[in-house]
Amino acid sequence: MNSTTGAGGSARTVVLTGMAVTTGYGHGVDALRTGIYSGVPAFKPVTRFDTDRYRVGVAAQGPADLDLDTELKTLTEEACKQAGLSTAERAEALLIAARHADPAVSRLPRERQRERPIGDTARWLARECGFGAAGRTYINACVAAGAAVAEAAVLIASGRQDRVVVAAGHLVDPESFTTFDAGRALAPDGRLRPFSAGRKGLLLGDGAGVVVLEAADSRPGANPLARLTGWGQAGDAHHVCQPHPQGLGMARTIERALRRAGLGPEDLDYVNAHGTGTPYNDSAETAGMHKAFGEWAERIPVSSTKSMTGHALQAAGMVELVISVLALGSGLLPVNSGYLGPDPDCRLDLVLDTPREREVRHVISLNSAFGGANTALVVSAV
Description:
Elements (H helix, E strand, L loop, with lengths): L13 E10 L2 E2 L1 H10 L5 E2 L12 E2 L8 H16 L3 H5 L2 E6 L3 H4 L3 H4 L6 H10 L3 E6 L5 H14 L5 E8 L3 H9 L24 E9 L10 E10 L12 H14 L8 E3 L6 H15 L7 E3 L2 H4 L6 H15 L1 E2 L15 E2 L5 E2 L4 E8 L3 E8 L2
Parallel strand pairs: 5-6, 5-7, 10-11, 10-15, 11-13
Antiparallel strand pairs: 1-2, 1-8, 1-9, 3-4, 7-8, 9-16, 12-14, 15-16
Helix pairs in contact: 2-6, 7-12, 9-10
């Protein structure tokens, strides 16, 4: 992405003024905060569907009867309330979404699928919550939420929008579970162990979240929670499922995000890594961090909070953006759970055992997806 500027010739500052989230720990930011800082993963037996035929039967699942659209509407209202948006300000806002495609639609005949476009949820949510319009809906796997946030930031920084609401969601469902189980990607020992020796795969998790992003100069009464100072996207086009072993796409993504933020690796206080717990992905991500961070690669604290929340696929970047903001506000870095011992291909300063206290000014949150796609978001203290 190229640099963007507002009408005055310089990029507008993007701030985050509201956020709401639901994960396997339950509904609300407080539930997520308590869960991740407890260090106890949210994984438990799946009750939403029968898992007897699978190799693995656990996930970070919330209530079995959770409805994604209903939850997104509730979260949107909560985030807008925290941001203090008036009815008029909502009416001027744009909604961008990232979500898991409805598996029921994919089973319909092709001509019927056109009657149920993926953007329907965003348009419905915009109408229900009083927004001016709905923009794109991202479904590009594990970078969907990160890509949606990056687009929102570009629209605000360039002066095309004063505020954009981003909603993202994915619930553990039998279709995704079947796909990852059949590919032997799920951890058979029931633990997601990012960057650890003996890691055996990922585990899925519920995730839904909403953030309100605004131009810092658009609303004098706003009370920002954080600044979104950098964002980057890049691909490596190496393999349909695997990242480049040297992490080339991830390195470019990090470099672009840091350049936009005007920061160097030495300025980062924490990396919320993608860290899926799969042997290939974790080593490639580490290689990308080493390429981008250089001598600082083993000095910046790192953890993958998927080790506690599970992998929320299209909503992963949203859940981890909220966690990054929590780290800024609390000065506590969440742990990299499930660690068994060092892997020579994952030489990082991992946050182990207990949350680490640290002054946190700048955090970078990373995500990768099939097809070699990568996103990076830099959030900074107000």
